[in-house]
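pinned: reference chain
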Amino acid sequence: MRKLFLSSSFKDVAALLADFANEDLNGKTVTFIPTASNMEAVTFYVGSARKAFIKLGMVVDELDVSKADFHLITEKLNRNNYIYVSGGNTFYLLQELKRTGADKEIINQIEKGKIYIGESAGSIVMAPDIEYVKMLDDSEKASNLETFSALNMVDFYPLPHFTNFPFKKTVERIIDKYHSLLKLSPISNSQVIFVEDDNVMVVNTPNV
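pinned: its structure tokens
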């Protein structure tokens, strides 16, 4: 079963993961991929996500795919129980996933039933294509990315940070431009998209 936990801000929805996974998370391992943040000046969300996993009792195994060879990438993705991909620059993330072959291995693991957790850019790359977020991220930070075609694990287009500062107006512009062209799925920082095969549901955190 294909199971995706697609968030805008992981720390804000981490409490929903155990129910989605339907298991005790204590002691479970997660391949933690912060690569998208390499091109960003602001990266606090990476540390926040790491702390959120630790609070859940999970073991964080970091993997920057931009600095790893294919053997290490496949070994960690195979060994650990979960896959997490952080926010940051979506175009740079996709470039590095494709360059290293990590994209194909992540798809392979998802198709085997391993739960994938995306945050912002990590959620967007599950879409068929990422060109729609050019207003949100600088595509020039991925000078070697030849095509915007992404991992295509969902038939919709996640759009994180809906209604959230400082991205509110940019997200609204993306919606204005693409709402009639693409199957957009806007989510705020307090929402997560649960994907279980063809079942897709947007869930709010309990206090929202």
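why pinned: The chain has a mean pLDDT of 96. The radius of gyration is 16 Å.
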